[in-house]
Structure formats: C-alpha cells, structure tokens
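Lab notes, practical 5.
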Amino acid sequence: MNRNKSICITILCLSLAMVRSLPIDAQKVTFHDGFISLKQAFEKLESVSTYKIAYNDSQLDVSRKVLMDQKEMEVLLALSQLLKNTGYTYKTNGNYILIVPEKADDTTKDRKRVSGVIVDNQGIPVIGANVVEKGTANGTITDIDGKFTLEVSGNATLQVSYIGYNTQELSVSGKTDFSVKLGEDTQALDEVVVVGYGTQKKVNLTGAVQSISSQDLTKRNLSSSSQALQGLIPGMVVTQSSGAPGATASIQIRGTGSINSNSEPLVLIDGVEGDMNSVDMNAIESVSVLKDAASASIYGSRASNGVILVTTKRAKENKLSVSYNGYVGFRTPTSTPNPVDAVTYMEAINQACVNNNQAPQYSEEVINAYKTSGADNIHRYDTNWKDLVFDEITLTHNHSLSVSGGSDMLKTFVNASYNYEDGLIPNNSFKRTAIRSNTDVKLTEWLRAGLNLNIRRSIQKDPTSGTNNIINSTLRFTPLFGAVNNDGTWGNGQNGINPLAQAIDGGVKVVDNNDIDVKGTLALTPIKGMEILASYASRRYENKQDKFQNTYDTYEGGNFIMTYPTTKSRYEEWYQLIKNQFNAQVTYENTFNERHYFKGFLGFQTDEFKNKSFGGSRNNYYYDGYEEMNHGDASSSMVNGNSSKLTMMSYFARFNYTFADKYLIELTGRYDGSSRFTAKNRWGFFPSVSIGWRISEEHFFDPLKDAIDNLKIRASYGSLGNQDLKDYYPYASVLALDASYWFGDSKNYTTGIYSNALSNPEISWEKSQQFDFGLDITAFNTRLDVTFDYYIREISDMLQQFPVTYAVGLTSPWENAGNMRNNGWDLSVMWHDRIGKVKYNIRAMLSDVKNEVTDLYGNKYINDNNTTQEGFPISSWYGYVADGYFQSKEEINNYPVYGNNKDNVKPGYIKYKDISGPEGVPDGQITDADRTIIGDPQPRYSFSLNLGAEWNNFDFNVFLQGVGKRDIFFNGAGARPFWMGGTVYEHQLDSWSEENRNAEYPLLLIDGSGGGNMNNIPSSFWVKSGAYMRLKNVSVGYSLPKNILGKSGLSNVRFYLSGQNLLTIAKGYKGYDPEGDVSSYYPVTQVYTFGVDIKF
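Output from the prediction step:
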C-alpha cells in the first residue's frame, strides 16, 4: 500500500511541477469577475503571476470599470485588453510592469456615446446584462429598466450577453441608439450524454437514457454516492433502509428483475464494473442511467436490471485547479418506538395475564415498591435499554481534495478523500480512505493513452455479537432486566444476554476492505471520424474479517450469576476477488451531404472473475491479552476454504443513422458467452432496435417553434439476458469435501467426499424483453424539459429451484421455469428560470411500476407471511383477511374462529374472514384454505421534488421524496406488544377493552399464549400502509464575494449547512422509519453537517 501511495504522490508532483515550470508570461489565466475597477484588475493579475505593476494614479484613472472576463489568456495579453482605449500601454523590465501613456493616435479619436435598452423575448427588461466594446475591457451593465449608456470608438462592435441567453454582437457604425431583444441560450439541445461505450447528442437519443451532473450529486453534501442518486432519475427507486455507518442504499430500475438473482443494476465506472459507493462524489463528472433494454442491450447479459454509467473527472489543458470540500456533522436516529417504564410494563403484562385467564405475574407489593422506592439496580431494575445502548448524537466528517492540471501533452486529475462515521452503539464505526488518479497522455496527434488508478480502503467496526442482534435485544428487552448494577458490574439481562455488555465488552469484529483498480487505455485516430480504442482493466479486492468473541460476568442482587458466553473464541476469514477485463472497439462517424449522419461501432470484450476464500477459528482462550489464533485450544480448530472462476466473452455492435436531424434509428446487438452454462447453451444473442422522430424539425411545426424547442417521440424494443447466480457451476455435478466423518474407534474426524447438489446441464440464460414508448419535450427556450416513458418488461425462463423430497438428501437443481412482467411509466418535469436576481429551478418526478408473476409452471412459494405465485406481485404478503375485532361472546358464537375452539376466544381478539375451503368456497371454518394475498410490498408511485434557488451569493436547495403506495408487514418488537417475551411500547397501550373498542391494537395478550398466537398469525391486520413523504435534504450555502477573496488566490469559497432526513409524514404509521425495516434493525439517521467548499 505504501508503494502505491508513493506512485500517486509522484504523479501529482510531476503534474504540479510541469504547470509551475511554464514561463510566467506564457501561463494562461481565466477570470470571471465581471466589471471591476482597473485597480482591482491589476491586483488580480499580480495575484496569479510574479509581476509587480506600477503606475501613476494621479494620471491614470484606476477607478474606471473594466470587464475582467478572460478565458485561457496569457497574462500580458490580458493586460493589453484591460488597457485598450484607456490611452495607456505597458513596458516590462524583468518582473516589473510599468503602465505608461501611449502615443496619441487614432485610437482615442472618433469616440461617441451610445445607449439603448435590452429586453428578453417576452419584452421584459433584462437587469444586469453585460454590454462590452468588443476586444476591449470597456463596458457597462444595464440598470433596473434594462437601459445602458457607453462611450465607444466610432467603428466599435458591441457585445451584449447575459447568463442563460445567447450573446449578440451589434455594429455602432451610423447608429447611437439600440433596442436589443435577447434570445434564450439553447445549448441544452446540443448537450452530449454518455451512453454505452460512447456518447450521443441528447436530442438524438432514441432510448430511455437520463443523465445528471456532478453538481446534482454534491449539493446534497452526502458521503454515499448511491444515496445521492435518490430522486434524481424517474423509474429508479433508491431506498435507504439502514442508518448503520457505511450503509449503502439499494437501487432498482423499473422494478424487480428476477425471482432469485440480484435486481441491482450494473454499475460501470469509466467503463469498468464497480460499486457506486467506491467513487467519491467530488470526483464524478456525470452519471447516465440506461433504463430500457434498447439503450442497455450493448451490455447484453449483464444489463438485465439497467445500467448506471459513472464518468469521473479528468484534467483540463493548461489549467491548474485545486479544490477542497469537507464537512463535519452529527447523526441521530430518525424514529424508534418509546418503551414503557417498569411500573407500566408490569401493569400491562398483568392485564395480559388476566385477559388470558392466567394469574398476574407481579404482585401489588412488587409494583408498589417500584412506585414508592423506584429501582435500586440491585434487586429492582427500571432499565431504558434504548437510552443506554444508543448514542443520541454521533460524529461524522468527510473530506475531499482534488488537484488537476497539465499541458496539452500530459494532464492529470487526482482526488483524495476520507470519510468517517460513528455508529449509534458502542464499538461501531466506519471509515474509508480513497485516492483516484486519471492521467491522459497525448503521444502524437493521432495517438493518445490514458491510465486510471483507484485505491480504496475501508474499515468497518462492529461488536462481535452483531450490530443487528444487539439492536434487536435493545428494542425488545423489558425494563426489568438489569443492564448495570450499582457497583458497576454487568446486570444479567435476559439469561446473560445483556446488549450493553455485548456492545462494550463482548468483543469486536473488524472488517478490512482493500480495493485497487487499474485501467490502461490506448486510443488511435487514423482518419477523421474514426477511433480505435483498446483497454485493459484489472481489479484486486481483498476482504479480511477478524472477530474475537469475549466473555463478561453478570451479577444480580449482588451475586455472581454467570459468564456469558461460556468461552472466548476467535474467527478470521480472508476473501479475494480478482477481475480482469480486456476491451477493443472501433468507432466511425460521418455526415454525408449534410443530411445523412452515420455512426458505427464494433467491439470485443473478455471478462475473468476469480474468487478465493479461507477461514479458520479456535475456541477456549483462557488468558486475557492472549488472543491470537495460536493461543486458542488447538483441538477446537476449524478451517474452511473455497475458490471459483467465471469467464465471459462478448462481441457487440451498434449502428446509428439520422436523416436531416429528424428521423433517427439505432440498431444494437451483443453476443455473450458465459462459463456458467454448457457449450450448447453458453452463448446468447441480445438485439435491440429503437427509432425516433423529431417532430419539431418538420416544416409544419414552424408556427410552434417560438414556444417548443424540441418535440420528439421514440419507441424501442430490446432483449437482455441474465446469468447472475450464486452458483458458478449449476450445470455440473459437484462433489464436496467434509471433515466430519468418524471411522472406527479412533474418534478422529476423517475427510469424506460427497455429492451435495443436483445439477441441470440444460439450464440457460434468463431472458428479458422490454418495449418502451417515450416522449421528450423542451420548450420556452429550454426552460421547460419534460420526459415521459411507458414500458412493458417481460422476463422469461427465470432460474429457480423447485423443492425436491428430503429423502433425496441433495439441494434442488436450477431450472428455467418462470415468467414475470413489469409494466409502468416514468415522468420527469424540469423548469428553470430567473426572477430579477433570483435564479431558480424545479425538478419533479413521478413513476410507477406494477409487478406480476405470470407463470411458475403450476408452482408457488409460501414462506410464513409472504408468497410468490402466479397472477400476483413477487413476494406478496400472505395470510388471513382480518375483519376487525370480536366485540361480544355472542358474535364469537355466530362466527368461525381460528382453531375452531370458540371457548378460547374472547372479545378483543382479531376476527378473520372465511373466504374459502377444501372445495374452494367458504366452509364455516378458518383454515389454511382461507389464507390469501393480503398486500404488495413493492413500492408504487415513487415521487420526488427538487427545488433550488440562487440569490446574490446565497444558494438554497430542498429535496422531498416519498412513496405513494406500499404495504408493510408489521413484525417484531416495535410492531407487536410482548414480542418474544419482550416489552411493550407506549403506542401499543392503545389496545382493545370494553371502553376502547376501536383501539389500534387487539386485546393485550402474552406472546406465545393461545390467544397471543391467535392474534399474531399473519393477517391483513398487521399489513399497514408504508406510504410516506420525507423532507430528505435541505441545504443553505453562502459564497464569499469575489472582492473579498482579492489576492488570496482563491476563486471560490462557499460555506454551507445541510440536513438529511429532517421530517417524515406517514399517516397512521407508528414505530420505525417507513423507508427502513419495521423489524428491529439499525434506525435510519438524521444527519446535520456544516461544511466548506474551496476552489483555488
């Protein structure tokens, strides 16, 4: 690792040295300061060079306003421009510049005063527009009425410009009064977006492709790139289900893509497969999302769930830039249920016992002792586990430093980042360090080379007992269990399980991840329009886990109770993944007769994946401090290891044709081969076709062109494959080794070989076909942008395992047996404009997808409370249909009950509907035949709203996000009272009684009792609405004015405050965060940060 760091530092130093070694008068400078005084302009030139400028301020009017707006201009040339028409010039002597009067000539004669008014295309005055005499720094800005006055030479040309509008040039010959109408800048129509293995103009896209810029990501000030994608792309659902340090968000594009395999999209970083969170947001240039099969089919079998293309930043020629973005903040849980105190708990469970015809568990004497004397933490405990285990405020900070620069021959971009997050429980944290370097070399006019290097390391620290296990116990345990005794010893918790002791003294698990990516590229341009590119990329990822299970002693009533767990143990595991990729491609594009645009592309790619792992453990560590593997009991040693390999080979091509910028067609095909299948099923061909019609380019559309800039309809069809299985050799009969057999009387384990799985040599690719119909509208001088897509996605030959009889003793083989459909739509509406000095933008998105399993070959899967079966969404909630509460014994006698024993049923129990029976019709009993689909866990109507505004030096951004429809199955401690012998929560006390017949919860009963079991069976009663709207992010920033920065060398300094997950509206939802998991897992957190963004 030290050697790698040295290489990166050397690259950075060479780049900096190269830039600084340029002659000072040859260095190119860029300014965007608008109109400032000539004195301020001199000071700025001095700040970027070693020159000192001298002048006589009694003769030279240094208060005169000049336009400081130079781009990539040499220092002395910029000075000449500033002095033009001032009557002065300069002389140099070493590092000194003397401003002197120039000889009288015609440049100071024939001057005249011009004036005018500037309006937009609606006739509204444009305030603050720049009016400059071309080729000089002589200029002014318009006033509140859009008017200007300026003295110029007699043959001058005026340049009129304003942000968001096209620049106009006007000759002043024979004219002194002007009326100027500015048109909106339509360069958005020329925007180029990244697509598979290349780029295309946005207006010429025929597939469902949407892109976002680095500014869209960084303005939310997050450490996770995957979380920053939320709400930016319609049809892409990003869910943050955990607040654990280092937790990433899950991503789905247009619904679930398979029953058994991963539904996450393919993520490519500069063309190489990677993880969205492996790249720092400040190093990202743009992100493109390929949503439909036509745009993604160039990646074939790897793109069945969509593709995310991440392009990282690269250095610009002859420009040195340094930037730093960092923040510090704190995290706190968004929502966790509030447990009751000891007295309330005892009274509630006594009531539950009475409701179940049992004697109360706690006497009035015990309860009164708590009421009068409280807890003594010796014999009586009143433990609020949540307050003890959770830290309400924890630290987080993030830092990112980027440096780029170089010449036209060699340029380098380097980004280094560090992120740290402290967890909500003890011994829980995450830290990540990364450095990325992108280097470009121009070898000749026709040959270029590139080298990308990315090094990352992350360390995850958790209690050995497991973070989720500890949180589960914390939220479930009753207040009567002791956590800490008065003398500082550990309480016994529940039979020795004390989540606070587990977190602090139970040992630590450390996961150390090291990742190195290298990619080399060679690009050849033999003729105009043709590029031949070859690249080789290699990734080496290593994961090391080190877990030591410590013991702790528990006490109760001053007496030693037990040591938990009974023995100390150590487990270590090492895992390695090596990926190698070779890619060769050729691209040719040309325009014939000004109306026929052609672009062709051919490519070849090979991929190799190699996995290897090794692990070992020992128990019985008897001495503190002696915790290495060899210090454990040798007789308890266990070792394991495995390795696997996967190879793929691909041929692909794409053809684009455009006629007269109106009629568009794209043909794509990919031929993939995978070692996961036998030779006869190894190869799959995945074609696509897409067409588009730019109606706005037709002559009959001309009357509408003033309002609508671009109107395009498009349609596409594409097919994709999927071979993503956990098993690398599903077609082969596999033998396994196991050292767990005894022979004879030796009592020693002997290694044996056995078959553990049935194979299927006939399996092949899962197949996905998608039809997409889209509409793109850009209107009102690109201020309005609307995109709409409707799609049908058919998934067939899904790989699944049907159950076999246990007598076989082998796992089920994989089979191509199942079809599924996703149909839905995506809508994106964006608007940007300005009102006076306020620039604002609005981005609203809404999407929906409906999932249905269409064929399972007559099978169905049932797993307690969910099922996958034909005609319904995948993993639908499954159970009985609740019909309110029984309100009287008479009602119970006249209604079927679960279990058919009406004597055990009381008013306040949940009532279930009799909807079927053995003959398919109601039979007067509540049996398994009455179980049915009771909810859809898939999110529907995902929406988001992004609002942004800029005024003077302030910027303001708000992001709202939510789900319009989703069914959540309430389970676990926060959902049900006394769950698994646990506590009860404040909101669960709203339970049925004679006085509270419409309560939120049924009659209080002890979990595990007859009535408790009857109420807790899976039913629609426990299916709640998971619809919510969340104020996801708010940020406020302030950038220091340019005149304050002065000679500091800083081009921009911005301070910002940001808040994440600030407010959630979820009607009727109680307990945990609706975006997360209602079971007892890591709460989603609110994050508050203060940061600074500095650019040099």
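Observations recorded by the TA: The mean pLDDT is 86. The domain at 197-316 is CATH 2.170.130.10 (Ferric Hydroxamate Uptake Protein; Chain A, domain 1).
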